[in-house]
């Protein structure tokens, strides 16, 4: 049975003041991520080169969420009091529609519709492609997010995870548009926008590009797999498909990385189509490693601060068992070692509270008895705090059916970000050795230790260690 809950919808901001006296504005972000509306997004997503600082406010509308029996969001019903511009769109030319959505007579967008990795690395990838959009003088589409991914198939808008205000400050020369507004643009256009598809693959000959002939069945598969059929654009047999090879180890040396990024910019700048659809399998940055970070939304940061303040002082444990060998008795032994180590650390530091991050709840309890036995050892010996016991986001998700049935709130996705922020700010960070699961190159650990190192270098004396393996 579907469950519904109504949440308040905040005001929005106009996109652009045109030469005429009528103010045209961006179509509203209508996806469910506004449940977590961040105050710093009230300024809207703008073309910073044409900012007018004029705002338009609306009465608070509402969003109703419908969830199917599998816990998937099936419908987002949006109602608001804005002027019904769609009725007037037939009177507008494509140039006027373009002006409304990109601030120019002709729009040029970069739409990286899928990031291949989970949030920790996807965040890094997104920064590289934002930099690419700036070099190409194209508007960057802010792809949807959800379940720890950045992908056009996800249900939540970009600001569900990330701060738009921070994005505009760190990338002041880049124009942005939300996926929802981008979709609106494709639907409103009379002459549907043209596309060129780019796929960046690892390896091969350094910095090479080839035109690929795609069969109709392959195009349909790309559309279905990446939910691209929701956009009304010319993506068919007439579209050009290109495959770019990075070459092996292009990121190792600054020289080869710079060569590849220049090659990429030079070739993509020649594209005249209105939309560059881009997919990739790059795992390393092709611009500088020091690109500005995309900060998390204010709602997530505030929730992390609340939990950290409630627990201080506390020990944070990260145990990802996914790479452990389930056919041995290794996991129960690892759990026992953790208990013994934790007792010593708690006694030595005089710290009582413990926060646990683990992938165990996402593993079926019937999959292997060793997983269950390991958790029984921990739960019978130590009192752990988790995002569940700390009732994360309960102040926003008051509907229990949404919290319990929506996959986003069952351990992956937004709570994974929350776990990372809590680990970064813990007094003592403890994780397992490689033989008990993850290795030292785990993205979560790399992100946490990098951030903790920055805090310690800044003089944060509350952090008692960088990382310790039990």
UniProtKB/TrEMBL annotation:
Gene Ontology biological-process annotations: fucose metabolic process
Q: Which residues form a coiled coil?
A: none
Entry keyword Transferase: yes
Q: Could you tell me the keywords of this UniProt record? A: Carbohydrate metabolism, Fucose metabolism, Membrane, Transferase, Transmembrane, Transmembrane helix
Does Transmembrane helix count among this protein's keywords? yes
Q: Which domain of life is it from?
A: Eukaryota
Q: Which Pfam families match?
A: O-FucT
What GO molecular function annotations does the UniProt record carry, in alphabetical order? transferase activity
Give the stretches traversing the membrane: 21-37
Q: What is this protein called?
A: Proteophosphoglycan 5
Q: Which organism is it from?
A: Rhizophagus irregularis
């Amino acid at each position: 049975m579907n469950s519904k809950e109504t949440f308040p919808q905040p005001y929005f901001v106009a996109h652009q003041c045109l030469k005429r006296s009528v103010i045209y504005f961006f179509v509203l972000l209508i996806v469910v991520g506004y449940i977590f509306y961040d105050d710093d997004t009230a300024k809207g997503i703008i073309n910073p080169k044409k900012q007018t600082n004029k705002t338009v406010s609306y009465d608070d509308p509402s969003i109703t969420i419908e969830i199917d029996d599998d816990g998937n969001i099936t419908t987002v019903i949006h109602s608001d009091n804005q002027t019904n511009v769609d009725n007037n769109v037939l009177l507008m030319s494509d140039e006027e529609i373009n002006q409304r959505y990109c601030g120019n007579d002709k729009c040029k967008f970069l739409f990286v519709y899928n990031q291949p990795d989970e949030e920790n690395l996807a965040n890094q990838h997104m920064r590289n492609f934002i930099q690419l959009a700036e070099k190409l003088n194209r508007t960057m589409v802010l792809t949807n997010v959800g379940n720890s991914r950045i992908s056009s198939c996800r249900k939540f808008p970009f600001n569900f995870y990330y701060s738009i205000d921070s994005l505009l400050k760190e990338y002041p020369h880049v124009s942005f548009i939300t996926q929802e507004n981008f979709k609106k643009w494709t639907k409103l256009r009379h002459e549907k926008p043209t596309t060129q598809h780019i796929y960046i693959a690892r390896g091969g000959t350094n910095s090479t590009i080839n035109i690929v002939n795609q069969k109709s069945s392959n195009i349909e598969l790309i559309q279905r797999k990446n939910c691209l059929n929701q956009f009304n654009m010319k993506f068919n047999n007439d579209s050009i498909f290109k495959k770019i090879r990075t070459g092996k180890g292009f990121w190792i040396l600054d020289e080869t990385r710079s060569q590849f990024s220049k090659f990429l910019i030079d070739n993509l700048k020649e594209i005249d189509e209105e939309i560059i659809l881009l997919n990739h399998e790059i795992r390393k940055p092709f611009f500088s490693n020091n690109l500005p970070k995309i900060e998390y939304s204010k709602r997530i940061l505030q929730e992390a601060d609340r939990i950290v303040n409630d627990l201080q002082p506390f020990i944070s444990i990260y145990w990802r068992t996914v790479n452990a060998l389930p056919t041995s008795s290794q996991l129960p032994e690892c759990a026992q070692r953790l208990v013994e180590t934790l007792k010593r650390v708690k006694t030595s530091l005089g710290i009582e509270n413990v926060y646990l991050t683990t992938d165990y709840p996402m593993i079926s309890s019937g999959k292997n008895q060793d997983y269950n036995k390991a958790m029984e050892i921990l739960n019978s010996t130590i009192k752990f705090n988790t995002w569940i016991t700390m009732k994360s986001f309960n102040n926003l998700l008051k509907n229990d059916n949404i919290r319990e049935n929506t996959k986003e709130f069952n351990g992956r996705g937004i709570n994974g970000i929350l776990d990372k922020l809590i680990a970064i700010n813990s007094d003592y960070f403890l994780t397992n050795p490689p033989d008990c699961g993850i290795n030292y190159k785990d993205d979560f650990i790399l992100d946490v230790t990098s951030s903790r190192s920055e805090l310690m270098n800044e003089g944060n004396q509350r952090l008692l260690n960088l990382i310790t393996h039990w």
